[in-house]
């Protein structure tokens, strides 16, 4: 199936989730994330959820990481909608955030970190195929981000939905993920 068809289908499915269903899925995803071994990482880039899009709420996971892995540096992004690039900043327990024009929470006054320092990226997505090819919102932010990372960076994704068989219109600039966390299972590609 083509990306745009999948994007429309899975956005509609996610938007149809009730608050109670979202809460259950968030909890089940948190359990999958907590079962993963984060101990080898020094820096982890996490996304901050856009509530209106019903993205997985990463905040309970972030707070858990701060407690369980206090030595782990967490990063989040500021989006440049002109260049479709992300810049990366330290996420602090007491750090200030503000929503950009798209409703994405972004750090204010935080320390910027070079992409070369990132060990793993936890990316939002709608759905992936069984080869790890992602369908996001279609702007290519994370494909550009992944391409700029070190070759050994761990590319991780979160979705409420299990992988589909195949995305038919994958192209050369698409960068697949290696691990997908879903509410019921963690997939390795």
Automatic annotation (TrEMBL):
Highest taxon of the lineage: Bacteria
The entry's keywords: ATP-binding, Ligase, Magnesium, Metal-binding, Nucleotide-binding
UniProt keyword ATP-binding present: yes
Reaction(s) this enzyme catalyzes, per UniProt: (6S)-5-formyl-5,6,7,8-tetrahydrofolate + ATP = (6R)-5,10-methenyltetrahydrofolate + ADP + phosphate
GO molecular function, one term: ATP binding
GO BP, sorted A to Z: folic acid-containing compound biosynthetic process; tetrahydrofolate interconversion
Binding site for ATP: 3-7, 134-142
Enzyme class: ligase
Keyword field contains Metal-binding: yes
Residues the record lists as binding substrate: 48, 55
EC number: 6.3.3.2
NCBIfam families: MTHFS_bact
Protein's UniProt name: 5-formyltetrahydrofolate cyclo-ligase
